[in-house]
């Protein structure tokens, strides 16, 4: 039996959102939209009002909150300008994921263009781990920078910030993680702090970094410092950090993707080339092409490669760095596959799948354990922890399911852990080797308890029912007005009932292609990364949920449904 066959086929159940036909009619009339698109919008809670107008035609001017509403932003901008103009030196310390690296690059690039002396520091994932550390603080002081500006961490770095203060550094923290208590920074920017709530706390570090640039540009009055020119970097973190693509995030992502399509940054041009991305850039291109290559640097070697790539003005250097990131990503994929297969073997050898999955091995590469944990959740729909060994202790990464908060789960198991942190969907921790088995048992027991109160089967929420005859190329183009798509703004999911399976074909030994008919019309239904499905049998009558798309192959265009769920029709 191959490792792929060890993965169970977790079938998704179909749910239909509550329908509001009268509101759909009003939307169709007010905005000249098709009945189908209007039904989707009304099912998502939209009314024919200003909010829907801003959604359909998002603009920077009308759709973004005032920067001055972000607590302490004005003070930070004033102080950074003061330090920059006095040549006192500004050191940026950022995380090694796409959000931290794009946010750090964005602010660094702005400061460089403003003529402010600055430098970027990135922690080493393997020897130092996440967050601000003593080495960075001392290096900042050693190299003559008087301000330490953190991006994507700092909220919980009390000890390191106190050291910075002892060394005479002025500290500014820009972060978006959960706040228990404010850190000892001179200026603290975090929407989650008491008295803030800016943009409902949904902005990632790159988004906050862009807002900092907006505030700085208003004080420096230089055409080269137009904040719109930095949206290509801001959108990278916004999309890859999986924040809700609603409100300000959706506008940053949308305008950023437009900039990215025509970017002149040598690093992004080179990266697009190795990804095979041309003019039209979508969220998928960032999520599955550009993002993984940027992440590969921090996972496999050092995030500093990304800072170099995103900020260089040398096209030849950018080309070399992009190729290096592409190679690192291939290595990351191979390493991920090895760790995933070993984890699957461990789970299979234990018999029944537990409520909480824990897989560990001293040889697991700690740069990919988070991705593998997510793959296990996708396979089994159970909270999953994957652990590797590094620096004399086990380091773990956890991914959860809907209804189970990972950070609360880890908090309940803190007696076994040296450190832990995270949020509802994901978290990380470390523990001593002697505690691993005890942790695995406790993790399963706690998950067993938590899963009694949550759905243990994944589901797909259909926005509306549609007839196959309604699906036309014009409708598919109209549905693109929902883009950019992502967390909090998924692609319109259409429910088509009682279609007959006319034919089934397996493509590249990996993907199912079904020919579906309502008796009059035909459409192809694709189930990606699925070799078989119990409902997809020739002759069956099925209900399907998926995204309508147009597949262009060798110049031929045909309508296609990318299927998320299939059930035998009642």
Describe it:
With 570 residues, the chain is α/β, with parallel strands linked by helices. The protein folds into three domains: 3-57 and 459-568, OB fold (Dihydrolipoamide Acetyltransferase, E2P); 62-261, inorganic pyrophosphatase (n-terminal core); 350-453, Diaminopimelate Epimerase, Chain A, domain 1 (Roll), CATH 3.10.310.30. 41% of the residues lie in helices and 20% in strands. It contains 20 helices and 18 strands. The strands form four sheets. A five-stranded parallel sheet has the order 3-2-4-5-6, with helices on both faces. It has a five-stranded mixed sheet with strand order 7-8-9-11-10. A five-stranded mixed beta barrel has the order 14-15-16-18-17. A hairpin with a 3-residue loop joins strand 14 and strand 15 (511-517). The protein starts with a helix and ends with a strand.
What descriptors fit this protein?
globular; five-stranded mixed sheet; 570 residues; OB fold (Dihydrolipoamide Acetyltransferase, E2P); Diaminopimelate Epimerase, Chain A, domain 1; disordered N terminus; five-stranded parallel sheet; inorganic pyrophosphatase (n-terminal core)
**Total number of beta strands:** 18
Task: Categorize the overall geometry.
Answer: globular
What is the number of independent domains? 3
Secondary-structure-based class equals: alpha/beta
Our measurement of the CA-to-CA distance between the termini, rounded to an integer number of angstroms, reads: 34 Å
What strand line-up does the widest sheet have?
A: 3-2-4-5-6
